[in-house]
Amino acid sequence: MTPLFKKIGLAIAFSPRAEAMLAEAVRLKDIWKAELVLIHVGEHGETEKQLLDKLLSNHNLSANDVIVCWRKGKPAKEILKACNEQGIDLLVTGALRKEGLVQHYVGSIARRILRKANCSVLTLIQPSVTPAPFDNIVVSADDYDLAQETLRQACLFAHQEQARWLHVAREVKLYGLSMSSADQATEEEYTQLRHKLIEDEIDHVQRLLGKANHAGLKINIKILSGKSGFELAQFAKRKNANLLIVSAPPRRLMLLDRIFPHDLEYVFAELPCNLLIVNPDSRYAHG
């Protein structure tokens, strides 16, 4: 199997969570047999080098076992530049906790990275020094151009993590509009139309799955309706998922997206779990 990630980057700061973030990145590095690139933006004198050496030694690694990028400047800009220069396939970052609340959210720096990164980005809300596999995964099968490749990669990821469940969620954005045409229908006709719409969407997801290697995976298909993005996040919460996988949003959003929040903004605002934004073109672009 061709590895999804040949080069994994970790945006590392010398914070209380540094040990856990490194542990998570090392686990992924070992699973995918990938190179690990550490990116630190800020001061990088002897003190910082000693701190990094100590962190690495806790995982039986040294500076010779990883690539270290010391950068100065604006964090988001420098992290993105390092990803491009190093040909990183997957960037691992952390999320922040809302003050006084249990919800997590993506801060301004991380949002800029998520929107502009040319690679896939994994955002962790509660990294652990003893990381566990992502065994309960939700993947969005929405109608972005990249959905097919995202679903294919989600299946590969689920296989590698030996996931117990892969929930494939599809949001029906025009569900209410479609149902409004049934205003004059009888209750029986209304029910039949509703079932037909759901069956059509399930068939579409099954066709997508037919092009992905999902043999051996326990698959659950769920059709969602309501506020797009919000319903996806709520579904991930209800399933107690430990990873939500979505396609990278289009770079140039349509006019309506400039007026209303983009679907993923609901996910960014209150992360239901760890989040993997897949940029399927990244590993091909990096060769």
- Report the structural category: alpha/beta
The CATH superfamily of the largest domain bears the name HUPs
Shape estimate? elongated
Largest sheet geometry: 10 strands, mixed
For the record, the count of structural domains works out to 2
Give the total of beta strands: 12
* pLDDT averaged over residues: 86
| SSE succession | EHEHEHEEEHEEHEHHEHEHHEH
Unreliable stretches (pLDDT < 50, length at least 5) are 283-287
The rounded Rg comes to 20 Å
Determine the N-to-C terminus distance: 16 Å
Q: Number of helical segments?
A: 11
What percentage of residues falls in helices of 4 or more residues?
40-55%
Briefly, what is this?
41% of the residues lie in helices and 20% in strands. It is an alpha/beta fold. Strand 2, helix 2 and strand 3 form a beta-alpha-beta unit.
